[in-house]
Amino acid sequence: MKKLDDHSIFKMIILGLMLSICTLTTYYFHFILKSEVIFTHLFYIPIILASLWWSRKGAVVGLFLALMLVISNLMNPDMPYIWSNVVRGIMFVFVGRLVDALHLRNLILIDSLNRSQEYQNKLINHSNASIIVWDPDIKITRVNKAFEHITGYTADEVNGKEICILFSKATQKESLKKIEGTLNSEYMEAVEIPFTCKDGATRLMLCNLANVYEEDGTTVLSTIAQCIDITERRRAVEALRKEKEFSENLVQTSPTFFVAINSEGKTIMMNNAMLQALGYTLEEVVDKDYLATVVPESNRPMLSKVFDEIISLRKPTLNENLVLTKDGREILVEWHGRPVFIVKNIIFLTYFLCTGNFQSIFLQSSALK
């Protein structure tokens, strides 16, 4: 037998008292006052309570009170209005069922809302991106697990605090300016905001910010930010930039000739040593046909064959040929050619310009008199 808890016992005591009052009231009005004065409105209290507490089982209370009212009417010959009590009894049962139906519908809606909220909580808490929510006073109201992992702060440590605690003094003014800008617009995308972690480290976050509005569509309820840590990415980009600059400086400051030619035979890069020797500017040779611009007509067939061999055999080459200066002079040079190819669509050199399966041909030379 199932044991009743204290809450269920309390409900049964309350309902028992209400039914006792209803029974005594019926007896008092029917057998002592012999009056049909309306008193049955008191019956709706236990009917409603029973339907709320026990759902369909609670409908028994409405049925019990209806039968009691009709039987009391039949037992007293001085009470001729039985049909009015029959109608009241039907109303008792109907009200009990109606309250039960409305209560059940309400429970379904509450369960649906709880499921929806639970689903949203899981989406937020298990998101790989850091999520922060703050109110119009810029006080944090919610953070997720990813935020806790990145910053080292727990939700209890930041909830209710101003978002300023996440910024250093050096970046606080600029960061707040970006955040406040969201209040004047619906959303902001790709906003870079540096966050200061609990251990004092700074993490650069790429954030998308959006406002959540009240039902009127104008009053801001809160702002939600979805942030991705791009600190390591930014460091890698900066390292690549420095490496690129270093490589380009090596090429540009080299005293040997250096030219990059794509698979279409067009010049995409030429270093300063070669430009100065030939008398051209970079604008005059870039995207121009290399053979037609700087190679004498007599050397073009031979050099064209060399280019074809580089592309087809994919091997370094060594050859001598003449190059033509802007003023018509010819310079004999020794060329060391090396092909650079694309692998799975990955371009290895930032200044490479080519479509297709093969890449630029790089020629490094030493000027020969």
Task: List the defining traits of the structure above.
369 residues, disordered C terminus, 21% strand, 5-stranded antiparallel sheet, alpha+beta, rod-shaped
Task: Note down, in words, how this protein is organized.
The chain is rod-shaped and about 135 Å long. Helix content is 48%, strand content 21%. Helix 3 runs antiparallel to helix 4 (82-125). The longest helix is centred in the N-terminal third of the chain and has 44 residues, at 82-125. The chain contains 12 helices and 10 strands. It has 369 residues and is α+β, with helices and mostly antiparallel strands. A hairpin with a 5-residue loop joins strand 6 and strand 7 (267-270). Mean pLDDT is 81; it is low at 344-369. The protein has helices at 6-32, 44-54, 59-75, 82-125, 145-151, 155-158, 169-183, 231-253, 272-278, 282-285, 290-294, 300-313; strands at 130-134, 140-143, 187-196, 202-213, 220-229, 257-261, 267-270, 317-324, 330-339, 361-368. A 5-stranded antiparallel beta sheet has the order 2-1-5-4-3.
Task: Break the fold down into its secondary structure elements and pairings.
Elements: H1 6-32, H2 44-54, H3 59-75, H4 82-125, E1 130-134, E2 140-143, H5 145-151, H6 155-158, H7 169-183, E3 187-196, E4 202-213, E5 220-229, H8 231-253, E6 257-261, E7 267-270, H9 272-278, H10 282-285, H11 290-294, H12 300-313, E8 317-324, E9 330-339, E10 361-368
Antiparallel strand pairs: 1-2, 1-5, 3-4, 4-5, 6-7, 6-10, 8-9, 9-10
Helix pairs in contact: 1-2, 1-3, 2-3, 2-4, 3-4
